[in-house]
Write a structure and sequence with these properties.
single chain, alpha/beta, Rossmann fold, 2 domains, four-stranded parallel beta sheet, 11 helices, 9 strands, about 40% helix
Length: about 300
């Protein structure tokens, strides 16, 4: 299909065909990353600004490397070094960035919907690198890419997302993508972090680990986000690990070929034990590798609309 969107703001907005278009394009860019010379001129002459108002390590580095491998000119900005600290509005800041004739803005922000707001006011392309507890589309896309690479198809696949669903933008983006592509989605964790309201969008919700993992083809574990929790949603991390952590003994209850995924950073011995994180079923580092290809694909497609 022909990609026509100037922005990538959410998975919710995308059709199954658009998601597949990104995944197919990412396949080609993964081949680029496996070459001796890992650069292509696809974005030569274009300028990309990475504007991270919320801290990030993996996502920011992955985007920056993707831009460099596409031969773009790259500028990195952080809120601590911007005029936001002087009282300038977010819109004024990004309008000034656009006035410098940039082509794409990759932005992370703690406020849900911030990227949608600025995209409505900018002619340049906007890529959502995470907005509060709303969405993280490129993380979901790299998760989908990894699942498709390992399992071939989403139809009838049982995917369990386990952990802090309530505060997770990764979970929301994954849910929309998986449902649109035909997977069965189970959400699991403490009842305080996995409310039954998620059943209304087509997910199965359960609060017992054994039930959640029994028939799972994929288990995607989410980090316990202490920074987003203003009240105690469970008594302690030790108790969470005891009831919902994935250990070697837990693996014995799952399918032999189950995929273990995690968007990072991992709280080892909380969400999962080291023996599982580093075990043969884990594709966590492959997710990181695939994230580079997916972000190259997203930038390439959106830049194509700009040309």
């Amino acid at each position: 299909m022909q990609w026509t969107r100037k922005d990538l703001l959410s998975i919710y907005d995308l059709s199954a065909e658009e998601i597949t278009c990104i995944l197919d394009t990412a396949e080609k860019f993964k081949e680029v990353s496996e070459r001796r010379v890992k650069k292509v001129p696809a974005l030569r002459g274009m300028t990309v600004v990475n504007f991270f108002v919320e801290p990030s390590t993996r996502t920011r580095v992955s985007f920056e490397l993707a831009e460099q491998r596409l031969s773009a000119d790259v500028v990195n900005m952080q809120a601590q070094a911007s005029s936001l600290l002087k009282g300038e509005t977010l819109l004024d800041t990004v309008k000034n960035i656009e006035a410098l004739q940039v082509d794409l803005v990759v932005m992370r922000h703690s406020a849900p919907g911030a990227q949608n707001f600025i995209a409505d006011h900018l002619k340049c392309g906007v890529v959502n690198a995470g907005d509060g507890a709303h969405e993280h589309p490129t993380q979901a896309l790299l998760d989908l890419f990894t699942i498709r690479e390992k399992k071939g198809s989403f139809k009838g696949l049982n995917v369990t997302i386990l952990g802090d669903i309530l505060h997770s933008r990764v979970a929301r983006s994954n849910i929309w993508g998986l449902l649109k592509l035909g997977a069965n989605v189970t959400l699991a964790g403490p009842s305080t972090l996995v409310p039954r309201e998620f059943e209304s969008i087509g997910c199965r919700v359960c609060h017992h680990l054994d039930e959640a993992i029994k028939d799972a083809d994929v288990v995607n574990l989410l980090r316990i986000q202490h920074e987003r929790q203003t009240v105690g949603f469970f008594p302690s991390t030790g108790e969470y690990a005891a009831w919902f952590g994935i250990k070697g003994s837990t693996m014995a209850k799952m399918k032999d070929d189950v995929l273990i995924m995690h968007p990072g950073p991992i709280n080892r011995d909380v969400e999962l034990a080291s023996e599982v994180a580093d075990g043969s079923n884990s594709v966590i580092l492959e997710q990181v590798t695939n994230g580079l290809a997916v972000r190259m694909a997203v930038l390439f497609l959106i830049a194509g609309v700009r040309k």
